[in-house]
Amino acid sequence: MELSWTSLLPSLLAIIFAIVTRRVLLALIGGILLANIILFWPSVESMAQGTGWSSWSTLTDSSNMLVWFFTLGIGALFGVLEKGGTFKQFVQKLEQRQWVENKRRARMMTWVLGVVVFIESNVTIMIAGTTSRPLYDRLGISREKLAYIVDSTCAAICILIPLNAWGAFNLTLIAKQGVEEPLWVFIQSLGFSFYAIFAVLLALFVAWFDWNIGPMKAFERNAQPDRVSKHNWGDEGKSKPNYGKGTAVVLTSLLSLVVMVPAMLLVTGNGVLVKGDGTLSVFIAIYTALAIAIIGTQWVRKTGMFTIVKAALQGAWNILPLAVILWLSITLGGLTRDMGTGEFLASILDGSIQVWMLLPLIFVLAALTGFSIGSSWGTFAIMLPLAIPIAMSLDLPLAPFIAAAISGGIFGDHASPISDTTIIASMASGTEHIDHVRTQLPYALLAGGASIVAFAITGATIG
């Protein structure tokens, strides 16, 4: 279809409806319906067929099927760890050792988890959020603060340490543009990934100093410690319980996730990490961790297999709404790409723009695209083929242009209420989704503004 401002309407409808009503599912469904109306107007039959086909093809796509199953697998994993009791022992071990006895250490633990577990953004968010949540509840830290820290570290770190599917995906896009030595150019671009760098550093600052701005102030002020869950390990005449076995099961399960993803990327890539199948690698890693959790729970808790399977199914059922939201979000993202939303935004650029303005504009356009379609990956696919040829045609260094496109995609995805990572951060932290969006946005805008300034300075330097 011809590029038009109407291509923005489905995403705008979904975003505004989600913010106003807090009904993300209905917002996404409304966006999908409007996209098909615009695409197939005035044929009602084509609209209906388009809506059904776009939803069904997204649901049954082979790569997406792995995404659905590893999403449910994450739910099953934490269902076994939580209902089986080993996760509780892990938290109690932290309390017993007094490793996380105050708010600052709890926040720093979340930040460190987000940095260390760089395997895949959604998996990292689930691990960091689910592991930290009981500690935050006990100490009286708002779940909105937890959602912000996990969301601000996980996706950004996956870009800065690209030994994962993110790195393989972006490297493939860069190589397809005819870039010589694409791996080296991609590595160079990491130093210019200003939004990812600023977001991680800002989250570290917030975690250490408990800096609250905007709506976050009220949520932190209203957060109350859960005194009931705090254990008194110093009672006289009582020995400290031994939670070492349960802790070992949890740590082994989570460590297997970290180790298995790069290992499977090497296997599926025939020894070349960046050529591996990221989705399949994450899928195998999650179900390996699930198997370890099941066997470990039986060993530690002497729990029957029926109880463990029930816990796994309950965990998968609890996360099923997330899988549905992901399905609808991916469907809407595909439709907006078909409508040319990214290309329309990119068409704003023309030859009359000065060189120093190019990097900030690419960042802003990528941010608008990511915000509109709710997908950083989709934004990379749209913006990298635009940014790289611009740099080539002007004989400018490629790395800053690649970084501007990727950074803008991360920022837009980070701020968007229809982004899968934003939704998962809300669910992993146990907070209302729109509350997470509202409390996170001021921090994201701060890091985004600093990124625009940094890209402008970089543009002036290379121009």
Spell out the key features of this protein:
21 helices, 0% strand, globular
Strand content: under 5%
Average of per-residue pLDDT values: 78
Going by helix content, strand content and strand pairing, the class is mainly alpha
Contiguous uncertain segments of 5+ residues? 227-239
Q: Percentage of helical residues?
A: over 70%
Q: Judging from the principal axes of the Cα atoms, what is the shape? A: globular
Give the total of domains. 1
Can you count the helices?
A: 21
Radius of gyration, CA atoms, in whole angstroms? 23 Å
Number of strands: 0
The description of the largest β-sheet is: none
Please give the alpha-carbon distance between the first and last residues. Answer: 36 Å
Helix and strand sequence: HHHHHHHHHHHHHHHHHHHHH
Brief description of this entry?
The protein is mostly helical and 463 residues long. The chain has helices at 9-21, 24-40, 44-60, 62-83, 86-97, 103-116, 121-139, 143-160, 165-175, 182-190, 194-209, 216-222, 244-268, 278-301, 305-338, 341-346, 355-373, 376-393, 398-415, 420-429, 433-462. It has 21 helices and no strands.
Walkthrough of the structure:
One of its GO terms (cellular component) is plasma membrane. It is a multi-pass membrane protein. It is found in: Cell membrane. The chain is an all-alpha fold and 463 residues long. It has one domain (62-322, 337-463). Helix content is 78%, strand content 0%. The chain is built from 21 helices and no strands. It has helices spanning 9-21, 24-40, 44-60, 62-83, 86-97, 103-116, 121-139, 143-160, 165-175, 182-190, 194-209, 216-222, 244-268, 278-301, 305-338, 341-346, 355-373, 376-393, 398-415, 420-429, 433-462. Helix 3 packs across helix 15 and helix 7 (121-139) packs parallel to helix 20 (420-429). The chain is globular, with a radius of gyration of 23 Å. It starts with 8 loop residues before the first helix and ends with a helix. The relative contact order is 0.16. The model is unreliable at 227-239 (pLDDT under 50).
